Amino acid sequence: KAEAQKQQAFQVDISDALRDAVEPEAMMILAAQKLGQFLNTACVGYTAVDESGEWREVVPMWTDGRFAGLAKSYRLDAYGPGLVAELRLGRSVIVNDTRRDPLTAAAACNASDKPAQDHAFVCSPLITNGRLAMVLFVMDSRPRTWRDCDTAMVEEVAARTWISQRRLLAEKNLRLTNAMLEQRTTELLRSETALRQSQKLEALGQLTGGVAHDFNNLLAVINSSVELLRSDRLPAEHCDYYLELIHDTVGRAVKLTGQLLAFARQQPLVPEVFDVDRQVESVIGLVKPLFGS
Q: What is the Cα–Cα distance from 289 to 231, expressed in whole angstroms?
């Protein structure tokens, strides 16, 4: 009963750790530490197998320091083809004594490829898309008889670690994608703002040109009228007409200035109805004297 309570407490503890994890590597290190301390082993770690079937070196993610040989990298496939074959079939490998177990005793490998002293280990494989992708291993620094509950706990932690790793990797990729989208959105907003500012400047330039053209027309009317008034050829009875024309043109200039001020204050303009014939006649009256009688 005490053992069952201990296992239940560990399952709650590992569940909380996996749920609160943010980074995949940190999660795997924490899971390895908790599993190693719970089983009172010397080392817990992971090793990966790439798509070509090549094994990567093992660097233990947690060790209690009792087994100096486990502090360096080595390869799990150095234990022999029998162990590798079992793992590729998706079967956990339980070795109580590396010197006596048939899977490891006859392995012809260099001491640099695996821990030199006798020890025990449990390996739980992860099969993805029909191939061996990763292995969770638990090692002890001495021969040990692994209980069924020990093996079951290793397999459970391995399965839950794989699930958490995929979830965290997906969340990490999603965060990176969101960050890229936010950056892209910010760049698009900046580009849009710059484009709008450019369009405003272009519109302002067109408005300025139009206003200058309108004022030039008004000044032309005033200047022509003044020239006619100063001319000796202008009949005296026409003077009042051109004075009135100058007054009317000044009024239109004042109105145009008011429209510019309204635009500067971003106030809505009030359109007015005007007599087109009267405006044309005023221009004709101004131009006609220039051609003589």
A: 11
